[in-house]
Design a protein that fits this description.
Layout lengths: L3 E8 L3 E3 L17 E2 L7 E2 L1 H13 E7 H6 L13 E5 L14 E4 L2 H12 L3 E5 L2 H8 L5 E7 L7 E2 L14 E4 L4 E6 L4
Parallel strand pairs: 1-8, 1-9, 5-6, 5-8, 6-7
Antiparallel strand pairs: 2-10, 3-4, 9-12, 11-12
InterPro entries: DHFR-like_dom_sf
Organism: Paractinoplanes abujensis
Protein name: Dihydrofolate reductase
Length: 193
């Protein structure tokens, strides 16, 4: 089975969005360089960010997210983002009626079921867990192997927290650090997961 990685871009003070669910400048690093990150021609990063991010993105088989993000993005119009094969949505409401029946989106009622479904779909590829409340619940349950953050030099002061509202104690390894343009890429292994 592949590893489970909690991931997001984050402000220096630990927020993944402001109080109105807007990311503000958190994704500016994705357009601050000259190396194309994908085929869109829009995402251009520094070479260091490309090397770090592209290899990670290539490893992802499934993303787990909550219903809030699914609704805010309109489910990416039925196409998983960044070339990911499947999306598992944690929700008690199920698939929206008539919404892209062919789309590789799977709707489950809880975090344990979400991780099990995602791992069965991903095989030996990475399961990415979106940071925020659902990610924090999965982290608190001890189901996350690695924490990845793209730390952006901005302070929000308040908003949606990377680790959501869940309080838990976990020991992480020393970080692996990559310096990009307008971003610091950090990854930590989770002890005891």
């Amino acid at each position: 089975m592949g590893k489970v990685v909690m991931y997001s871009s984050v402000s220096l003070d630990g927020f993944i969005a402001d109080d109105h669910d807007r990311p503000g400048p958190l994704f500016d690093w994705l357009t601050s360089g000259d190396v194309p990150l994908d085929d869109s021609g829009v995402l251009k990063v520094s070479q260091a960010s490309y090397d770090y991010t592209r290899s990670y993105w290539n490893s992802i088989g499934v993303t787990i997210t909550g219903r809030r993000v699914f609704d805010m993005t309109d489910g990416w119009d039925g196409k998983p983002p960044s070339g990911i094969d499947h999306v598992v949505v944690v929700t008690h409401r199920g698939r929206p009626s008539g919404w892209h029946p062919e789309a590789p989106f799977h709707f489950v009622g809880g975090i344990t079921e979400a991780v099990a479904k995602a791992q069965s779909l991903a095989g030996d590829r990475t399961v990415e867990v979106a940071a925020g409340d659902v990610g924090a619940q999965i982290f608190a349950a001890g189901l996350v192997n690695e924490v990845r953050m793209d730390v952006v030099p901005v302070i929000f002061g308040s908003g949606k927290r990377y680790f959501g509202s869940v309080n838990t104690h976990r020991l992480l390894s020393d970080p692996s650090v990559v310096q990009g343009t307008r971003v610091l890429h950090l990854s930590y292994q989770v002890h005891g997961s």
